[in-house]
C-alpha cells in the first residue's frame, strides 16, 4: 500500500463543505432574514441536482440509441435508464408538496428580492426538454430569458439529434411486414373494417341514444375512420403531418403500432417497454408542469412571475403544447381487441423470435 494514501472521508467525497455552504438567502443581504427562503433555495438546488442526474442518464440513452443496428442488450440498458429517469421524476414531483408548506404570505416576504430571476432560467431543465425532442415540435424555441452564453448553448443543443428523432429513425428501420404471400397490414385493415362496422351498428341500435346523440357519435365514428385511413395511405398520413396531427414518420408509426399490438412476442417485449417508458417520462413532465402551474397560482394568484412572465396563465398554456411523445400516447386509437388481431404465420413468428434491427 502507498504510504501517502489518504483514507477517503465521507464529507470530502461528497464535497459537503461546498454543497452545504452554497445557500445565500437574498433576504439576509437586506437584513431581513426571511425564514422560508432557505426552503425555497434548497428545494430548487435539489431540483437542479436531479436535473443533472436526468441529463446524465439521458445523454447515455442518446448515445446508445444512436447505434445502428441497435441490439437487444442496448435496448435493455436504455429501458433501465429510462426507468431511473421516471423514478427521479416521481421524486421531483413530490418536492412540490414540500414547497407548498410555505404559504403565499411566507413567499411574499422575500419574493421581490428574487426579481428578475426566474425558474424559466433553468438551463438544465430546458436542455432536458431539448434532448427529449421539444425543438422538433416547435417552430421556434425562445431563449430570451437566458443570458447570451446560455442561449448560445441551448441553441446548439437544439440543433443536435434528439431522442425523438433517434426513436423515429430506429422505428422506421424495423423490417415489416410482407412475408411471401402474407401482408400484415392487409389483414389488419380487414380486422379494423370489421370492428368499425360493428361499432356503427352498436351506435345505430342503441335505444338509449337520442337522434342528436346518435348523429354526434356518428361524426366521431367518421373521425375515427379517417384516423385509421391515415395508416393505410402514406400520402394521406403526410398531409395530416403537415397539419400537425402526427410527428412520427409513417413507417415509424406503423412499427410502433405493431410493437403495441404484438407486445407479448418475446423480442417485442423490450421495444414495448422502451415505448412505454417514453410515454411515462412525457406524462411525468406534464404532471410536473401542471403541479407547478397550480402551485404558482396558489402562491401568486394572477400576479406576474418574478421573471416577467404572466405567471400561472403562462404555465397553464404550456402544459399541452410541450408534449413530446404525443404520437405514442395516441397509438391507443389504433388498437383492436386481441381476439380480433390477425394471426401471424409461423414464418413471421420465427422471425420475431430472432428479430434483428436492420440498417
Tag the structure with descriptive keywords.
single chain, 359 residues, mainly alpha, Methane Monooxygenase Hydroxylase, Chain G, domain 1, two-stranded antiparallel sheet, 18 helices
Description:
The protein is mainly α and 359 residues long. It has a single domain (26-353), classed as Up-down Bundle (Methane Monooxygenase Hydroxylase, Chain G, domain 1). It is built from 18 helices and two strands. The protein has helices at 10-13, 16-19, 26-29, 37-65, 72-99, 104-108, 123-132, 134-137, 148-158, 163-173, 184-204, 211-232, 234-242, 250-261, 269-300, 312-321, 326-329, 346-353, and strands spanning 178-179, 182-183. A two-stranded antiparallel ribbon has the order 1-2. It is globular, with a radius of gyration of 25 Å.
Do you know the CATH architecture?
Up-down Bundle
How many H/I helical runs? 18
In total, the number of strands is 2
| Most strands sheet | 2 strands, antiparallel
Would you tell me the overall average pLDDT? 87
CATH topology grouping:
Methane Monooxygenase Hydroxylase, Chain G, domain 1
**Would you list the SSEs in sequence order as H and E?**
HHHHHHHHHHEEHHHHHHHH
Q: Number of domains in the coordinates?
A: 1
Percent range for β-strand residues: under 5%
* Widest β-sheet, arrangement of strands: 1-2
Q: Helicity range of the residues?
A: 55-70%
CATH class, named Mainly Alpha
Uncertain regions spanning at least 5 consecutive residues: 306-310
Class based on secondary structure composition and strand pairing: mainly alpha
What form results from the Cα inertia axes? Answer: globular
* First-last Cα distance: 51 Å
Rounded to the nearest angstrom, the radius of gyration is 25 Å
